[in-house]
Amino acid sequence: NSPVDPWAEPPEKAEEAALRPGALAEFRGQPRVSDQLGLVLEAARARQTTPDHVLLSGPPGLGKTTLAMIIAAEMGSPIRISSGPAIQHAGDLAAILSSLVPGEVFFLDEIHRMSKPAEEMLYLAMEDFRVDVVVGKGPGATAIPIDIPPFTLVGATTRAGLLPGPLRDRFGFTAQLEFYDPADLESIITRSAGVIGVTLARGTATTIAGRSRGTPRIANRLLRRVRDYAQVHHGDGKPVSPRTAAAALDLYEVDPLGLDRLDRAVLDAVCVKFGGGPVGLSTLAISVGEEPQTVEEVAEPFLVRLGFLMRTPRGRIATDRAWNHLGLTPPAPQGA
Ligand code: ADP
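# adenosine-5'-diphosphate complex -> structure
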């Protein structure tokens, strides 16, 4: 009878779940996506059918998993969660699909990283709610068709462009999630502060929102770090001031624009090591000690959105704004 349950989720994980909005009405920001999706779900409910398959794309942390869970909750359906890299064999996929209950939501994260045979099996499943399981090898192999219950596939990918056309075409509703406006992040932070029991003074949510890289996951993470800092330095339970929040975020090396260490390393490499570019993705990734995928899907989208980085066919180029942000003088334009 140990007082510590070894199987308990770590506290931050449990908090993470509490922070996830459970209904479309609680989902902040992305007004267009949320209106359109609301309509898809309402129509499906009225017709008593399963909603069309949904494809969600956008950088990590913008709410793709949250939306998949909301779809299931709004339809009163269970949800099954898996990811492209976890499904290497078509058989893995067949096992999941054939065990779904009618109306279940199947959330497939990183859908662009699935193997080709699994992808082809998914086409048939999405269209005809059927899979062909191949038994045997060589000339004696036979395909046994298995019916699967109607389900809603919610696919998530960091970029819709990574998906083959035939797969993309099989989704009835496609939504591109954008980085959040500061006002939406502020409202997410205010809600989250209530959930985790931190009192924020006026203006503190704005300070944290401004440094959250347009991303709710980061907003929630920064809020927790601010809570830690306030507890240790001002453990008096008073509302956390904007100044305390800024001091906490400085300590965690999140700069006033929200750039973190990886973002700055990427900018620094392009400007200083590669003279402003162009530099290819893999060279850039090696020079900052990261996977190309992380540089491309985590760091770059926000740097491009800030107008710091341009992706060109010849490679990545730093803009004058990037040089200025690093406190450096941009090189004179060529030919001047
Ligand atoms: P993704 O699947 O796109 O990587 P998640 O759905 O896991 O992102 O979202 C990351 C975190 O951000 C979640 O824990 C959730 O609490 C929060 N979050 C995301 N979108 C919203 C939103 N629109 N409103 C409130 N919280 C959100």
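# post-check
The mean pLDDT is 92.
The chain has 14 helices and nine strands.
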